[in-house]
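Bit of a strange request maybe. I'm writing a small parser for C-alpha cell strings and I need a real example to test against, not something I typed by hand. Could someone generate the C-alpha cells for this chain?
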Amino acid sequence: MSKKGGNKTAGGGELSRFLQPHLQTITDTVQMMTEAAPAGLERTEWSEVVALGDVVSRQATVAGMVWSGDLPGVETLKENIAAYFNVLQGFLLACHGSTVGAGPTLHKYITSSAKGVVDSSFSLFKLAVSAYESGNPDRKTIIPPVTGTVWEACLALKKVPTTNCIAIGRAMTQICVCLKDVLREMKELPVGDNPPEKSSSVEVDMACSDKDESSSDVEVDDDLTEEEIAIARLIIAVTSDSLVAVKETVRFVSSLLKSSGNQRGANEDKVESMENLLSCCNDIADQVNELGACVYAQDPSEMKSAIKRLYNGINGMCKEIGDLGGSPESTFAAFGGFEKSLGALEEEIAKDVANEMKNLAISQS
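Reply from user aminoacidic:
Good idea to test on real output. This should exercise your parser:
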C-alpha cells in the first residue's frame, strides 16, 4: 500500500467522530447566546472577551502547525481538538456574559462577532480532519489560509462596540452609508437638471464629487413624462433630506456619548429610547427605498403610503429625542427640511393625480 493510501485510511473516520460532539457543544452554546444573559448576572467586561479571543487565535496557530506539518498520531490530534474547543467554549461563555444589560443592537454585534470566530474555527477543523483522513497532499498549503480566517475573526473583536450607545450610533452610521448609496444611484437617473427645490439648508457631504454625481448633463429619458420627471426630482430631494436627518440624529447620539464621558453605564437607562430611535431610522431608510422603486413605476397609492410612514418616522424620532432629554436645534431643523420635501412631493403627487382625472373626464366626454 502506498503512503498516500495509508494516510487515507489513517484514523478510519475516528477523528471525524471525535470532532462531531465538540462541534455540537459549541453549536449548542451559540444557540444559548440568541438571548442576552439575564440582568442579574455579573457582566463580563469586553476586554476579557478580547483577551480570550487572543488565546483562541494562538490555539489556531498551534492547530495550523500541527495539522499542516508532519502529523503526529491520532491521540495527539485528538488532544489538539479537545484543547482548542475547550478554549473556544470558554471564549463563548465570556461573550455570553458580556451581553448582560445589552440591548438588541449591542447583543447583535456581540453574537455576530462570536459567530465569526466559531464559523472560522469550524472551517479550520473540518478541513484539517478531512484533509488528514483523505490523505490530501495539499493540506500544507490549504490549511494555513483557513487558520488566517480565525486570526482575522479574533482581531475583529477589538472593533466591537462596548456600550449600547456606541452600538446604536454605529448602526445609525451604517444606515447613513446605505442612504448615501441610494442617493448616489438616484442622482444618476436621467431626469435632467437637479431638483429645483433645495433639499435642505444643511449640507450633505457625499463621498463622491458633485461632478461625478451631477445629472445636469444627462439626457432626459423619453420613457418618463414631464410630470413623472418632476416627481422623480422631488423623490431625490426627499432622499437627500432623509440622509441629512439621519446624520443629524447620529450627531445627537454622539453628543450623548460625549456628555457621558464614554463611560460604561452612562445612558444605559435610555437604551429603549435609543433603540426606538434606531428603529425609526431603519424605517425611514426602508421607505426611502420604496420611494426610489417608485420612480419609474409611479404608483400614487404606494408613494402616499411611503410618505405617510416617513412622516410617522420623523414624529417618532422627535418623540424619542425628547424622551432622551434633547432638543438639538440642528437636528430639528433637519427634520423640518425633511418634512418640507415630503410636503412638496405630496403636493406634486396630488396635482398629478388631479390632472390624470381631468384628462380622463375630458376623454370620456
